[in-house]
Write a structure and sequence with these properties.
Elements lengths: L7 E4 L6 H10 L4 E4 L15 H5 L4 E4 L10 H14 L4 E7 L3 H11 L4 E7 L5 H4 L2 H7 L1 E4 L5 E2 L4 H13 L7 E4 L5 E2 H12 L4 E4 L2 H10 L4 H14 L10 H6 L6 H10 L12
Helix pairs in contact: 1-7, 3-4, 8-12, 9-10
The structure holds NADP nicotinamide-adenine-dinucleotide phosphate.
Length: 282
C-alpha cells in the first residue's frame, strides 16, 4: 500500500500501463508519485542520480522499464534499481515483464535477488500497441505491414495489467506471486486487424512482410536503430508460436476473466484514436 500511507512510485507513469496504474491508485484516493523524465522529482533510467530522490519517501513502486527489458544492459539496470529501492526502505515492488522472453526472465531474477516483496506481472503482447504505440501509425495508414506471419497471440488489455498491478501494490496476498497475463483468446495479427477495422468502420488490412522488409521500411520512416533492433527481435524470435496459448493469470490475480480483444477494439474506436487523419492539404 501503502499500508503506511506512503505514496507509490509509478515508473513509466505516463505510459501505456503506468498511466492506468496511476489513474487507479488516485481513484482509490491513494497517494502516487509519477516516475518519468517529466516527473517531479525527475526519474530517468539513464541517469542514476535521479533514482534515490524519486524513491525517497515512497512505500512501494511499480516498475515498468523503458524501453524494454529485452535490450542489452536492462537486467543490470533494473537489478540495481531494485537493490537501491530495497536498501532504501522501499521493499514492495511490482515488476512488469515480458512473456516468453529469456532476457526479461533474467531481469525478474535480478529484481528478486534484491530481496524485494515482489510481484511479477509477466505480460504478453499488449492490445494497446495498436492504439498507443508503434502499430498505431500502421493502423492509421490502412495497412498493418508486419513480419508477424500467421502466428497467434493472446493480446492482453493494458487495463487488465493495471488492475493486476494495483491489486499487487495494495494487497499483501500477491507478494511472491508471478502472474502470467494474456487475453482470453488467440488471434492472428490479421484477425486482430480485422477486428479493429470492424470496430472503427475503416478499411484496414494486415499485410505480412519479411523481417528485412519491415526493418528497411522502419529505417526509412526514421524509427531509431535501437527500436528497429527490438522489433526485429520481438517479431523474429519471440513471435515464433511460443506464446500461442492463453493463461489464467488475470483470473488468478483478480478472480475474473480478462477483457476480450473485441472489447478493447470497441473502446479504443470510441475514443476516435483510429479516425483517419484530416488531410490538411485538401
Ligand atoms: N508493449 C508490449 O506489448 C509489452 C509486452 C510485455 C512487456 N512489455 C514491457 O513493458 C515495459 C514498458 O511499459 P509500458 O508499455 O507501460 O510503457 P511505455 O508506454 O512504453 O512507456 C513510456 C513511459 O516510459 C517513460 N520513459 C521513457 N523513457 C524513459 C527514461 N529514459 N527514463 C524513465 N522513464 C522513461 C515515459 O515517460 P517520459 O517520456 O516522461 O520519460 C512514459 O511514462 C517494457 O519494459 C516492456 O518490456 C511490453
Amino acid at each position: 500500500m501503502t499500508e503506511n500511507g506512503l505514496p507509490t512510485l509509478v515508473l513509466g507513469g505516463t505510459g501505456k500501463t503506468g498511466r492506468r496504474v496511476v489513474e487507479r491508485l488516485r481513484a482509490r484516493g491513494l497517494p502516487v508519485r509519477v516516475g518519468s523524465r517529466n516527473g517531479a522529482p525527475r526519474f530517468d533510467w539513464e541517469d542514476r542520480s535521479t533514482w534515490a530522490p524519486a524513491l525517497d519517501g515512497v512505500g512501494s513502486a511499480y516498475v515498468a522499464y523503458y524501453p524494454d527489458l529485452a535490450l542489452p544492459g536492462a537486467v543490470e539496470v533494473v537489478g540495481s534499481f531494485a537493490e537501491l529501492a530495497v536498501n532504501g526502505g522501499v521493499p514492495r515492488l511490482v515488476l512488469l515483464a515480458g512473456r516468453g522472453e529469456p532476457e526479461a526472465e533474467q531481469a525478474e531474477e535480478a529484481v528478486r535477488a534484491s530481496g524485494a516483496e515482489l510481484t511479477i506481472v509477466r505480460s504478453t503482447w499488449f492490445a494497446q500497441n495498436f492504439s498507443e504505440d508503434y502499430m498505431l501509425e500502421h493502423v492509421l495508414s490502412g495497412v498493418v505491414a508486419l513480419p508477424a506471419g500467421d502466428t497467434r497471440e493472446p493480446f492482453v488489455d493494458a487495463d487488465d495489467i493495471a488492475d493486476v498491478a494495483v491489486a499487487a501494490l495494495t494487497d499483501d496476498r500477491h507478494v511472491g506471486a508471478l502472474y502470467e497475463l494474456t487475453g482470453p483468446r488467440l488471434l492472428t495479427f490479421a484477425e486482430a486487424v480485422a477486428e479493429i477495422a470492424a470496430a472503427s468502420g475503416r478499411e484496414i488490412r494486415y499485410a505480412p512482410v519479411s523481417i528485412e522488409e519491415h526493418a528497411a521500411a522502419a529505417a526509412e520512416q526514421g524509427v531509431p536503430g535501437e527500436v528497429i533492433e527490438l522489433l526485429t527481435y520481438l517479431f523474429g524470435e519471440i513471435l515464433d508460436g511460443r506464446n500461442a496459448h492463453v493463461t489464467d493469470g488475470v483470473q488468478r490475480a483478480l478472480g475474473r476473466q480478462p477483457r476480450d480483444f473485441a472489447e478493447y477494439a470497441r473502446d479504443a474506436a470510441a475514443t476516435g484514436i483510429w479516425n483517419e487523419q484530416p488531410d490538411l492539404a485538401a
